[in-house]
Amino acid sequence: MEYYHYLLVFGVGLLCGFINVVAGGGSLLTLPVLIFMGLPPSVANGTNRVGIFMQNIFAVRGFSSKGVSAFPFAIWLSISSLIGAVIGAKVAIDIEEELFNQILAVVMVVVLLMTIFGTAKPRENLEEDMSLSKRITSIVLFFFIGIYGGFIHAGIGFIIMATLSMVNKMKLVKVNSIKVFVALVYTFFSLVVFVWEGQIDWIIGLTLGCGTAIGGWAASQWSVAKGDKWIRYFLIVAVSGMAIKLWFF
After folding, report:
1. What is the DSSP string of 128-156?
2. Residues 79-88: pLDDT tens digits?
3. Residue 79: which of 144, 142, 159, 154 has the closest Cα?
Protein backbone atom coordinates (compact mmCIF):
# COMPACT_ATOMS: atom_id res chain seq x y z
CA MET A 1 0.00 0.00 0.00
CA GLU A 2 1.09 3.56 -0.74
CA TYR A 3 1.13 6.27 1.93
CA TYR A 4 -1.98 7.92 0.50
CA HIS A 5 -3.93 4.69 1.07
CA TYR A 6 -3.37 5.12 4.81
CA LEU A 7 -4.46 8.75 4.58
CA LEU A 8 -7.61 7.55 2.84
CA VAL A 9 -8.23 4.95 5.55
CA PHE A 10 -7.75 7.57 8.27
CA GLY A 11 -10.09 10.02 6.52
CA VAL A 12 -12.79 7.41 5.99
CA GLY A 13 -12.37 6.39 9.63
CA LEU A 14 -12.85 9.98 10.78
CA LEU A 15 -16.06 10.23 8.79
CA CYS A 16 -17.22 6.78 9.92
CA GLY A 17 -16.69 7.55 13.61
CA PHE A 18 -18.72 10.71 13.39
CA ILE A 19 -21.57 9.12 11.41
CA ASN A 20 -21.72 6.01 13.62
CA VAL A 21 -22.26 7.99 16.80
CA VAL A 22 -24.64 10.63 15.44
CA ALA A 23 -26.81 8.36 13.30
CA GLY A 24 -25.33 4.97 12.44
CA GLY A 25 -24.19 3.34 9.21
CA GLY A 26 -20.53 4.37 9.20
CA SER A 27 -19.37 0.81 8.54
CA LEU A 28 -21.39 0.90 5.33
CA LEU A 29 -18.55 3.15 4.16
CA THR A 30 -15.46 1.63 5.79
CA LEU A 31 -16.15 -2.05 5.11
CA PRO A 32 -16.61 -1.69 1.32
CA VAL A 33 -13.61 0.67 1.15
CA LEU A 34 -11.39 -1.92 2.86
CA ILE A 35 -12.63 -4.60 0.45
CA PHE A 36 -12.06 -2.34 -2.57
CA MET A 37 -8.49 -1.73 -1.33
CA GLY A 38 -7.79 -5.45 -1.73
CA LEU A 39 -8.39 -6.96 1.70
CA PRO A 40 -10.22 -10.31 1.71
CA PRO A 41 -13.77 -9.78 3.04
CA SER A 42 -13.14 -11.69 6.29
CA VAL A 43 -9.95 -9.67 6.94
CA ALA A 44 -11.73 -6.41 6.04
CA ASN A 45 -14.53 -7.38 8.41
CA GLY A 46 -12.11 -8.12 11.26
CA THR A 47 -9.96 -5.06 10.59
CA ASN A 48 -13.04 -2.86 10.64
CA ARG A 49 -13.71 -4.00 14.24
CA VAL A 50 -10.48 -2.35 15.41
CA GLY A 51 -11.82 1.00 14.25
CA ILE A 52 -15.26 0.37 15.74
CA PHE A 53 -13.78 -0.61 19.09
CA MET A 54 -11.50 2.44 19.32
CA GLN A 55 -14.30 4.75 18.20
CA ASN A 56 -16.68 3.54 20.89
CA ILE A 57 -14.13 3.86 23.70
CA PHE A 58 -13.94 7.58 23.00
CA ALA A 59 -17.66 7.93 22.23
CA VAL A 60 -18.69 6.31 25.54
CA ARG A 61 -16.33 8.61 27.40
CA GLY A 62 -17.73 11.59 25.51
CA PHE A 63 -21.34 10.81 26.43
CA SER A 64 -20.32 10.16 30.03
CA SER A 65 -18.65 13.56 30.23
CA LYS A 66 -21.98 15.11 29.19
CA GLY A 67 -23.88 13.19 31.86
CA VAL A 68 -25.77 11.04 29.34
CA SER A 69 -26.14 7.38 30.39
CA ALA A 70 -28.70 4.57 30.73
CA PHE A 71 -27.25 2.22 33.35
CA PRO A 72 -27.90 -0.51 34.36
CA PHE A 73 -30.21 -1.16 31.37
CA ALA A 74 -27.30 -0.74 28.92
CA ILE A 75 -25.31 -3.41 30.79
CA TRP A 76 -28.07 -6.00 30.40
CA LEU A 77 -28.37 -5.19 26.70
CA SER A 78 -24.61 -5.54 26.35
CA ILE A 79 -24.49 -8.96 27.99
CA SER A 80 -27.23 -10.22 25.71
CA SER A 81 -25.62 -8.79 22.56
CA LEU A 82 -22.08 -10.03 23.30
CA ILE A 83 -23.30 -13.65 23.44
CA GLY A 84 -24.85 -13.24 20.01
CA ALA A 85 -21.80 -11.38 18.67
CA VAL A 86 -19.45 -14.31 19.30
CA ILE A 87 -21.78 -16.54 17.26
CA GLY A 88 -22.05 -14.00 14.47
CA ALA A 89 -18.29 -13.41 14.25
CA LYS A 90 -17.62 -17.13 13.87
CA VAL A 91 -20.14 -17.34 11.02
CA ALA A 92 -18.54 -14.31 9.30
CA ILE A 93 -15.10 -15.96 9.29
CA ASP A 94 -16.35 -19.19 7.75
CA ILE A 95 -18.53 -17.72 4.99
CA GLU A 96 -17.43 -17.61 1.31
CA GLU A 97 -16.05 -14.28 0.08
CA GLU A 98 -18.46 -13.78 -2.83
CA LEU A 99 -21.47 -14.58 -0.67
CA PHE A 100 -20.27 -12.16 2.01
CA ASN A 101 -19.95 -9.34 -0.56
CA GLN A 102 -23.47 -10.02 -1.84
CA ILE A 103 -24.90 -10.10 1.69
CA LEU A 104 -23.15 -6.80 2.43
CA ALA A 105 -24.63 -5.27 -0.74
CA VAL A 106 -28.14 -6.37 0.27
CA VAL A 107 -27.63 -5.04 3.80
CA MET A 108 -26.56 -1.69 2.38
CA VAL A 109 -29.72 -1.45 0.28
CA VAL A 110 -31.95 -2.36 3.25
CA VAL A 111 -30.28 0.23 5.47
CA LEU A 112 -30.66 2.81 2.70
CA LEU A 113 -34.40 2.17 2.66
CA MET A 114 -34.50 2.58 6.45
CA THR A 115 -32.61 5.84 6.05
CA ILE A 116 -34.87 7.16 3.30
CA PHE A 117 -38.11 6.36 5.09
CA GLY A 118 -36.80 7.27 8.55
CA THR A 119 -37.91 4.02 10.23
CA ALA A 120 -34.94 4.08 12.61
CA LYS A 121 -35.34 7.65 13.81
CA PRO A 122 -36.37 7.96 17.48
CA ARG A 123 -39.55 9.93 18.11
CA GLU A 124 -38.72 12.73 20.52
CA ASN A 125 -42.32 13.39 21.61
CA LEU A 126 -43.02 9.93 23.10
CA GLU A 127 -42.90 9.05 26.78
CA GLU A 128 -40.14 6.56 27.62
CA ASP A 129 -41.39 3.05 28.47
CA MET A 130 -39.08 1.11 30.83
CA SER A 131 -41.64 -1.37 32.15
CA LEU A 132 -40.37 -4.87 32.95
CA SER A 133 -41.97 -6.43 29.86
CA LYS A 134 -40.42 -3.82 27.55
CA ARG A 135 -36.98 -4.21 29.12
CA ILE A 136 -37.10 -7.99 28.74
CA THR A 137 -38.25 -7.62 25.12
CA SER A 138 -35.28 -5.39 24.32
CA ILE A 139 -32.81 -7.70 26.07
CA VAL A 140 -34.04 -10.68 24.01
CA LEU A 141 -33.93 -8.67 20.77
CA PHE A 142 -30.39 -7.52 21.51
CA PHE A 143 -29.20 -11.13 21.46
CA PHE A 144 -30.18 -11.29 17.78
CA ILE A 145 -28.82 -7.81 17.19
CA GLY A 146 -25.54 -9.10 18.63
CA ILE A 147 -25.49 -11.98 16.13
CA TYR A 148 -25.86 -9.51 13.30
CA GLY A 149 -23.27 -7.18 14.84
CA GLY A 150 -20.76 -9.98 15.22
CA PHE A 151 -21.39 -11.09 11.64
CA ILE A 152 -21.19 -7.81 9.74
CA HIS A 153 -21.94 -4.82 12.02
CA ALA A 154 -22.64 -2.52 9.04
CA GLY A 155 -25.80 -0.52 9.65
CA ILE A 156 -26.35 -1.90 13.14
CA GLY A 157 -26.74 1.61 14.53
CA PHE A 158 -30.02 1.95 12.65
CA ILE A 159 -31.24 -1.41 13.99
CA ILE A 160 -30.41 -0.44 17.58
CA MET A 161 -32.06 2.95 17.14
CA ALA A 162 -35.20 1.39 15.68
CA THR A 163 -35.40 -1.20 18.48
CA LEU A 164 -35.01 1.25 21.36
CA SER A 165 -37.31 3.75 19.68
CA MET A 166 -40.14 1.30 18.99
CA VAL A 167 -39.87 -0.83 22.16
CA ASN A 168 -38.72 1.62 24.83
CA LYS A 169 -39.58 4.92 23.09
CA MET A 170 -36.24 6.48 24.03
CA LYS A 171 -35.05 9.86 22.83
CA LEU A 172 -32.18 10.23 20.35
CA VAL A 173 -29.40 11.26 22.76
CA LYS A 174 -30.11 8.40 25.18
CA VAL A 175 -30.41 5.92 22.31
CA ASN A 176 -27.01 7.02 21.00
CA SER A 177 -25.39 6.65 24.43
CA ILE A 178 -26.72 3.07 24.74
CA LYS A 179 -25.73 2.32 21.15
CA VAL A 180 -22.06 3.17 21.61
CA PHE A 181 -21.81 1.34 24.96
CA VAL A 182 -23.42 -1.85 23.65
CA ALA A 183 -21.30 -1.71 20.50
CA LEU A 184 -18.15 -1.26 22.60
CA VAL A 185 -18.89 -4.38 24.66
CA TYR A 186 -19.95 -6.78 21.92
CA THR A 187 -17.28 -5.49 19.50
CA PHE A 188 -14.59 -6.42 22.02
CA PHE A 189 -15.78 -10.02 22.12
CA SER A 190 -16.27 -10.31 18.36
CA LEU A 191 -12.82 -8.74 17.90
CA VAL A 192 -11.33 -11.48 20.07
CA VAL A 193 -12.78 -14.06 17.67
CA PHE A 194 -11.26 -12.31 14.64
CA VAL A 195 -7.89 -11.96 16.40
CA TRP A 196 -7.93 -15.65 17.35
CA GLU A 197 -8.57 -16.59 13.71
CA GLY A 198 -5.86 -14.21 12.40
CA GLN A 199 -8.32 -12.11 10.37
CA ILE A 200 -7.00 -8.61 11.11
CA ASP A 201 -4.56 -6.27 9.34
CA TRP A 202 -3.31 -4.37 12.37
CA ILE A 203 -1.59 -1.47 10.59
CA ILE A 204 -4.69 -0.61 8.59
CA GLY A 205 -6.92 -1.33 11.59
CA LEU A 206 -5.05 1.02 13.91
CA THR A 207 -4.94 3.73 11.22
CA LEU A 208 -8.68 3.36 10.80
CA GLY A 209 -9.11 3.33 14.59
CA CYS A 210 -7.30 6.63 15.04
CA GLY A 211 -9.74 8.22 12.61
CA THR A 212 -12.87 6.64 14.11
CA ALA A 213 -11.76 7.54 17.65
CA ILE A 214 -11.44 11.23 16.80
CA GLY A 215 -14.69 11.20 14.84
CA GLY A 216 -16.54 9.32 17.59
CA TRP A 217 -15.39 11.72 20.30
CA ALA A 218 -16.35 14.78 18.24
CA ALA A 219 -19.78 13.32 17.47
CA SER A 220 -20.47 12.41 21.11
CA GLN A 221 -20.08 16.10 21.97
CA TRP A 222 -22.01 17.38 18.96
CA SER A 223 -24.92 14.92 19.02
CA VAL A 224 -26.11 15.93 22.47
CA ALA A 225 -27.48 19.12 20.94
CA LYS A 226 -27.77 18.36 17.20
CA GLY A 227 -29.65 15.98 14.91
CA ASP A 228 -28.70 13.77 12.00
CA LYS A 229 -30.69 14.96 8.97
CA TRP A 230 -27.78 15.93 6.74
CA ILE A 231 -26.09 12.56 7.24
CA ARG A 232 -29.01 10.71 5.66
CA TYR A 233 -28.52 12.37 2.28
CA PHE A 234 -24.79 11.72 2.25
CA LEU A 235 -25.26 8.02 3.08
CA ILE A 236 -27.90 7.58 0.39
CA VAL A 237 -25.50 8.74 -2.33
CA ALA A 238 -22.31 7.07 -1.07
CA VAL A 239 -23.80 3.74 -0.04
CA SER A 240 -25.83 3.36 -3.24
CA GLY A 241 -22.69 3.54 -5.36
CA MET A 242 -20.72 1.10 -3.24
CA ALA A 243 -23.60 -1.40 -3.04
CA ILE A 244 -23.79 -1.50 -6.84
CA LYS A 245 -20.02 -2.02 -7.10
CA LEU A 246 -20.05 -4.83 -4.51
CA TRP A 247 -22.85 -6.74 -6.23
CA PHE A 248 -21.89 -6.35 -9.89
CA PHE A 249 -18.14 -5.78 -9.84
Report:
1. P---HHHHHHHHHHHHHHHHHHHHT-TTH
2. 999 999 999 9
3. 142
